Amino acid sequence: PFASLAAGAVLVGWLWSRRPDDAGRQPQPADLPSNPLELRSALLFGVLFLVLMALSRAVAGYAGRGGLLGLAALMGLIDVDPFVVGMTQSAGSSAPTETAAAAVLLAASSNNLAKGAYVLAWADRRTGWRSLLLLAGLALLGVLPLLSM
Question: Is the distance from CB of 69 to CB of 106 less than 8 angstroms?
Fold first, then answer.
């Protein structure tokens, strides 16, 4: 399921990137992102990463499958990377492998929905709705394997 979802997402992204840009505008200085390697950003990310990874491991050990899947849905809205790292480290020990895999799928799908909402909020209306619909479709496809678990 992961390979087919990845291949489909890459194909749709590649096809979308080949479309001509209607607006043709150049990015303005306010549109350009700040440097993510600045010390303050790196420290904030590091602290967030440690806290979220510890939380995900604690929930995996003490809250059971329901708690872990609930945390997975919330983590997708915040930052999915520390959660995935926590699941890979706790799979088989504090969380059954099947539960950890289901949690990673749910977090990834939740993260796709969050990204679609961000684009809808910050991009132009047309791009926002297209992105939201494509990412919502990918999120739906991402949770389909959970129905057989």
Answer: yes
For 16-44, b where at least 16 C-beta lie within 10 A, e where not — what string? eeeeeeeeeeeeeeeeeeeeeeeeeeeee
Residue 61 identity (one-letter amino acid): G
Confirm if 102 and 69 have CB atoms less than 8 A apart: yes
How do residues 81-97 score in pLDDT, each as one tens digit?
Answer: 888 888 888 777 777 88
- 68 in Cβ contact with 60 (< 8 Å): yes
Q: How many CB atoms lie within 10 A of CB 90?
A: 23
Quote the pTM value: 0.73
Region label for 83, one of left (φ > 0), alpha (ψ between -120 and 50) or beta (otherwise): alpha
